[in-house]
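Listing 4. Sequential folding, example run.
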Amino acid sequence: MLSLVILSLSGGCGIHRIAVNPGRNAGLRAATSEKRAREIMGKNYFGIEEAAKYFGVQPTSAERSALANIPFSRKTLESCRDTYILVAVFPLSVNDVHYKAPTVIFFDASSLWAADRFATYKGDGVSWQLIRKTPVPNSFGKTYQEQQALLSKNEEVPTARVLVYAIIGHYLATGERLFNRGFVRSSDVGLDGHWVYVGDFVAGGLHDHNDWDYNRYDYLGVSSARKSD
């Protein structure tokens, strides 16, 4: 019996050991190579090369190694190829993305993109994220708690940092403006206790706002990301 050690690459620090029978392990190989993932996702792929080109990151050998295998199966990627974007997220804060991208992309960088903890946090390292390109269906006009109830067991609400990184990166690479009608909540809470949300990404730029999680607005839905397989 062969024992594999799998390290969490998405912020977690757990180590999991899985016993694998060499003759029956095909179904346990969830990870997908970068090359195959790019072929599957097409324009909805923002990988290491794109991050280097548009955000100026200089991946270390350790970061490249950590991103070598994508923690989503081929089946998952094929089912999400038109409705999600696959993003290699590097440790950049919301402020970092703002300064690296053309300023016209952000509507008002003086409000929330400043000293708040959600805007300055760089993350715990590199990770692959599979972000839904549209708000969760039927999530408008609901409280945050009600919106969370709409998520499947395979979904979670991403942080504002990951959302902004994905939205801006995808725009720079493809010219497509995600969330150009309405806003979506993130999982971040600002220092004032308000939930952070972004969207309305039109010609004027990406907008940011925050508000209480119990408020319902017709223009405010919720974002989602797939959990790793």
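-- end of first protein; second protein begins --
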Amino acid sequence: MVRSGIRSPLRKTLLPTTDLAGDFLITERTVEDIFNTLRQQSQEGPASDGNEGLVFLAGWRTDLLVFYSTVIGPRVQNNYGSVFVTAAEFGHCAKRARHATVQILAQVHSHPDTCCHHSDGDDKLIILPFEGMLSVVVPHYGTHDVPLTQCGIHQYRKGAWCLCTESSVQEHFITAPSSILVI
């Protein structure tokens, strides 16, 4: 349920807020892959001091849990303040996901500064949003590794992107070790 909204320097409209619904699991290695890909995209864009980047998270979902196991890096059109993926490139990424027997379940993109709120444009440019989908915004073009729980976790709820409360993200979004050795 949408609780309220906040003002953001990136928006003309209020950014709705809500508690994160569902449980989400991602491995440390998957998080590393996210940041490595965002760093690469930041360097490959036209601006010499950094460019926005975007990756898709793929994995599996059940009634109880969403598990992100795979990072898919699309070809992006990016610059210092925006990133865009064409519908055709999204289709190519979806095909790569199916080949790996996973499905695209979330999007992660970077912003230039510390603000990790969706902009009004972010709300409109996500391809094929679905109820419960996550969109994560990371700061500083993804050049600094930070826990995803300290980034902007947005969830698509009843036709709107909502910023999830910090306490609900801490409770329902878990980063697990990539492996555990038990001797």
